[in-house]
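Handout, section B. The chain below has 122 residues.
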Amino acid sequence: MLEEQGYIQGYHADVDSRALGFEVQVFVMVGLQSQAETDLSTFEGRCRQWPLVRECHMLNGEVDFILKCVAPDLSTFQSFLTGDLLTAPNVASVKTSLVIRGAKDEPGVPFDVLEERLSRSA
């Protein structure tokens, strides 16, 4: 039913990135020089091309984008940072935060909240 209605956009494996050799996870806050729509779209397209960038979200406020990156080691991430991200056109500022450990990683939406909301409106 959810598939036919277009709510399910795909299926994904829950992989253990560390067991596969990706020891480093970093959140990267990016500020751009220009926030014109063409510049935002260009940066998003660039993020889709970078394999280490697993998620890219545009934000409002002080930071324009937050990226979730994975890498096998700090050296690989550092090479991406200095060779790709910091040299990308329109990038004005970059701040990185290395993940020490994750406390929760739940994809999708909380279906129990959805069911409760739907039962109240019925």
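Note. The first strand starts at residue 24 and ends at 32. Compare this with the example in section A.
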